[in-house]
Amino acid sequence: MNKAKILTWEITGALIISLTGSLLHFVFAFVGEWPPVALIAAVNESVWEHLKLAFWPALIYALIEWPFFRKHTKNFWTAKSIGIFIMPVIIASFFYTYTFLTGHNILWLDISLFVFAVFTGQIISCGLLLRASIASGIKILATILLVLMIAAFSLFTFFPPHFPLFCDPPTGQYGILG
Q1: DSSP code, position 105
Q2: Suppose 53 and one of 7, 21, 110, 132 were both cysteines; which one would form an S-S bond, judging by CB atoms 3.0 to 4.6 Å apart?
Q3: Residue of 154, 169, 122, 117 lying closest to 40 (CA atoms)
Q4: Whether the Cβ atoms of residue 48 and residue 59 lie closer than 8 Å to each other
Q5: Would you tell me how many other CB atoms lie within 10 Å of the CB of residue 37?
Q6: DSSP-derived 3-state class of residue 48
Q7: How many CB atoms lie within 10 A of CB 34?
């Protein structure tokens, strides 16, 4: 698979992930707060719940890409794991930095930050997909990282640690169960 085709897949993915993640912000309320939907959709306004809006669509898009890429790259899951990991890291670090400096969040900046993080993660993934090889140790760490992210994003909506990342600022509640 050539560079242009991989870049097209990743940019298309960034657009789809951004749109899907934005829609997932509202899905939980739309379905009457049905608990199974809480796995992938935001259940409150905590930073953690907003990180899910990038993680799950990016993982699902990677699963869609896999059949098309698996014969053309040896780095697929390493590239995807690192790209997907970068998204919530950017969102959380930039969000906490700018809200510390301004004293409050700014909606248009939050949305821009989300889109920026998704595009950055996809571009990093693209760069790694184009590499001829990646060290086996990095591949193992990336696999472990992906498994840990899946576990964390599956559990912490239902059983969040009492840490500011998981607190819903308007209510002071944690996760779906309070």
Answers
A1: -
A2: 21
A3: 154
A4: no
A5: 17
A6: helix
A7: 11
